[in-house]
Amino acid sequence: MIHSNKVLDAKGLACPMPIVKTKKAMNDLGAGQVIEVQATDKGSTADLKAWAIRMGHHYLGTVEEGEILRHYVRKSGGEEQKDKRHPHVVSNDELIKLMEEKKDMLVLDVRESAEYAFNHIPNAVSVPLGELEEQINELDKEAEVYVVCRTGNRSDLAAQKLFEAGFKKVTNVVPGMSEWNGETEKAVK
Amino acid sequence: MTVKPMTVKEVTKKVISKDQLFILDVRNHDAFGDWKIEGENFEYLNIPYFDLLDGVEDIVDKLPLNKQVLVVCAKEGSSVMVAEMLSETGLSVHYLKGGMKAWSEYLEPVKIGDLKGGGSLYQFVRIGKGCLSYMIESQGEAIIVDAARMTEHYETFANENNILIKHVADTHLHADHISGGRKLAEKVGGTYYIPPKDAEEVVFDFAELQEGKEILVGGTKVIVQPLYTPGHTIGSTSLLIDDKYLLTGDILFVESIGRPDLAGKAEDWVADLRESLYDRYKKLDGGLMVLPAHFSKVSELGENGKVTASLKELYERNEGLNLESDKFRTLVTDNLPPQPNSYQEIRQTNMGKLKPDEEEQREMEIGPNRCAVHN
């Protein structure tokens, strides 16, 4: 079960209704939140993907369960413009190298769990940014933490939070999954 | 102003008579790029319906006032929505009834000619997909060759003309579309023929379509003589009818020739294809009318939509019949066009090994036909 902020039931509806309804439903979502669109129209996958790209939203993927297609889309947010503040930064390529060299490291993926489900670095641990505070005590403060998100901004915020909470070795991975060329895994079929 | 439906039959007439039409295709760009309604004098604008949800004001200026405008989508729903939005701005437009799904499934029957002992030969033009199938009728009996999946077209036509379908044949195991042959034969209680060499893996009973064998249609008047012409598939067989018509299947088309790679054996079958085209057909009477199982471009549609040419004419102008051996090999093995969508699943379905439901069959057939090679 993939977590989403809103579930839209568009089952049994023919084109164009799944997209028309998704467009409306997106208005009620906050930036960065995830919607699950349930549809049975086979054409909805290609259309929803093309529409999301066009609107600047982030199409995460589709899970097929028998007749039902569950599409996941993350609403665009203004995250891309912010300056990064956390001083310790590595590039994607540097992280790939470090992962080959080191054994004791924690790759912390702070994207929404739906984003993580469709595409993540093998062995990365998922703690969405919004849940970081409540889960922070479950993480080892002495660990060498590499924080990753889609473009490096949410991970920047998370890195600052971890540093303030007493984590000593925290590094932000920039840009992160949007340009990741290394290995990936999926938590869904 | 107004929104009216336009049927696939009406659009077909416009393609055949080379009329003008402005098509506003509201499917996504990938779908449009892959496959659209082709017409020699058609103009196109492709804007996905989801870009028009906030209004059509931006595209109104791009639509002509002096031409019919047809809004097209996959299944009709989105085109109705966009057509209604356009009508609210004061335009009169049409939408395609049934969308591209209906376009893909429509067959236009075209009479090719009469048979010597009475009866007629009809070509069924599947205009949206470029497939051609045939009905040879004599004395109230008929054989259907290379039937499309939508067998009701043949049944309706037969009923309206008091014709009994006695035989159904496929010239080869098709890879680009799902054959309606076996289904039609079962429905009408007729015999289903397929070349035995293409049927080694099929899981149902069939009659062998083999050289030297004759199928009688309507007493003794029409004799369908199969002619073994391997190349597109190992078993590909042509049919000779009435010493006048040559049904070439996917071996020879009007403007191109068949591709030998769809069963994964291009290299092995190059020589067979060459022999069929350059030797076996050459020995036949040049006056024979070639009737292929496909056309590639709407420019191949002649009078009333018929797709045909004499064998002699093809030896003069079809480039695929006029190549040196090495150039021929290059043409049919290198730089082949992309393979048809789902062609492997389609082959499995035609062998009876896969049993997709109707919706799945439709999905498998979506897209353009790619059975020919072109220069």
Properties at a glance:
heterodimer, A: 189 residues, alpha/beta, Translation Initiation Factor IF3, 2 domains, five-stranded parallel sheet, 29% helix, 24% strand, elongated, B: 375 residues, Oxidized Rhodanese, domain 1, Metallo-beta-lactamase, Chain A, seven-stranded mixed sheet, six-stranded mixed sheet, 12 helices
How would you characterize the overall build of this protein?
The complex is a heterodimer of chains A (189) and B (375). Chain A starts with 5 loop residues before the first strand and ends in a 15-residue tail after the last strand. Chain A is elongated, with a radius of gyration of 18 Å. In chain A, β8, α6 and β9 (169-174) form a beta-alpha-beta unit. Chain A has six helices and nine strands; from the N terminus they run βαβαβββαβαβαβαβ. In chain A, strands 5-9-8-6-7 form a five-stranded parallel sheet. Chain A has a four-stranded mixed sheet with strand order 1-2-4-3. Chain A has helices spanning 17-26, 44-55, 92-101, 113-118, 132-135, 153-164, and strands spanning 6-10, 34-39, 58-65, 68-74, 89-91, 106-109, 125-126, 144-148, 169-174. Chain A is an alpha/beta fold and 189 residues long. Chain A folds into two domains: 6-76, TusA-like domain (Translation Initiation Factor IF3, 2-Layer Sandwich); 79-179, 3-Layer(aba) Sandwich (Oxidized Rhodanese, domain 1), CATH 3.40.250.10. In chain B, α8 packs across α10 (325-333). In chain B, the strands form four sheets. A seven-stranded mixed sheet of chain B has the order 6-7-8-9-10-11-12. In chain B, strands 13-14-15-16-18-19 form a six-stranded mixed sheet. Chain B has a five-stranded parallel sheet with strand order 1-5-4-2-3. Chain B is an alpha/beta fold and 375 residues long. In chain B, β13 and β14 (222-228) form a beta hairpin. Chain B contains twelve helices and 20 strands. Chain B has two domains: 3-102, 3-Layer(aba) Sandwich (Oxidized Rhodanese, domain 1); 107-373, Ribonuclease Z/Hydroxyacylglutathione hydrolase-like (Metallo-beta-lactamase, Chain A), CATH 3.60.15.10. Chain A binds chain B through residues 14-17, 19-20, 23, 42-43, 46-47, 50-51, 54, and chain B through 28-31, 48-51, 53, 73-75, 77-78, 81, 359, 363.
